[in-house]
Specification:
This protein has 10 helices and 7 strands. By secondary structure, it is of the alpha/beta class. It has one domain: 3-Layer(aba) Sandwich (Rossmann fold). The chain has a 7-stranded mixed sheet, with helices on both faces. Strand 4, helix 3 and strand 5 form a beta-alpha-beta unit. Helix 2 packs across helix 3 and helix 4 crosses helix 7. The longest helix has 21 residues. The chain is globular, with a radius of gyration of 17 Å. The two termini are about 30 Å apart. About 50% of the residues are buried.
């Protein structure tokens, strides 16, 4: 069983984090989401507190793990929201069919080769930097200026972040045993617009932060619109790659509005 946090009441909503992250990345919006959903925020295999599984660490394999995890909880269909790698996983789950709705924040898979390599380079570089800073990281993170420099790749307003949360997220990135395999697997996966599957009939929203420096939205958002023209596509103003602390109210509105379009919950 994978590690997860569950709270709230209502239709089930599964939250899937990105590479090097953990379920706690959703904490800024959990209290609001739990008013509307039975929220299940999970750790992917090899991340957070979940053990590494003997799977290929790519999007389809992670999607299979999540579907099996949901089935182990006794659920047959759920709303799904994902961030970055988790956004790609959410779209893959929706393509296969067992999703009531899909919300993807800056999903992987709509990149060019250069954009994909940039993503791999930046997230790997962040991991190495955290390791290299070692015991000096808490002192640097405590200062607003250096916290902004350290975490500005991921957040639109890094100076406002909680220091303890930053340090815990950095430790999770540095120690994730599944990181290397998942990062390497990015090279072999891209969203295939020719096989949208059940996404063609599922409420889908794809949202991109206007300040995203990991997966810049300009061309990737355009490709997503071409690949999934029936989906809703939006820009999150002043938000970075991880928008949940930048604008929690809007992130919650995006998820709840997408779920509300599902005929299964009407």
């Amino acid at each position: 069983m994978l590690s997860y946090h569950r709270a709230g009441a209502g239709p089930p909503l599964v939250l899937i984090h990105g590479i090097g992250s953990r379920w706690q990345v959703w904490r800024p919006i959990l209290p609001m989401l739990q008013k509307h959903f039975d929220v299940i925020a999970m750790d992917l295999p090899g991340f957070g507190a979940s053990p590494v599984e003997s799977i290929t660490a790519d999007v389809p394999a992670f999607a299979t793990s999540v579907v099996e995890f949901v089935a182990d909880l006794g659920l047959t269909s759920v709303h799904v929201a994902g961030s970055s790698l988790g956004g790609g996983v959410a779209l893959e789950i929706g393509r296969r069919g067992p999703a009531r709705s899909v919300t993807a924040f800056a999903p992987v898979g709509f990149w060019s080769g250069i954009e994909r390599r940039w993503c791999q380079t930046t997230v790997s570089g962040s991991r190495r930097l955290v390791g290299a800073l070692g015991p000096t990281l808490p002192r640097l993170a405590a200062r607003r200026f250096t916290r902004t420099a350290l975490f500005g790749l991921y957040f639109g307003h890094p100076g406002q972040l909680d220091v303890d949360a930053c340090l815990a997220d950095a430790a999770a990135l540095r120690t994730a045993p599944g990181f290397a395999a998942a990062c390497s697997a990015f090279a072999g996966w891209r969203f295939d617009p020719a096989t949208p599957g059940a996404l063609a009939e599922t409420p889908v929203t794809i949202a991109w932060g206007s300040r995203d420096l990991i997966l810049p939205r300009w061309r990737q958002a355009a490709r997503a619109k071409v690949a999934l023209p029936q989906a809703q596509h939006m820009r999150l103003l002043q938000c970075g790659h991880l928008p949940f602390s930048d604008d929690p109210d809007t992130c919650v509105q995006v998820i709840t509005a997408t779920a509300a379009r599902s005929h299964r919950d009407r």
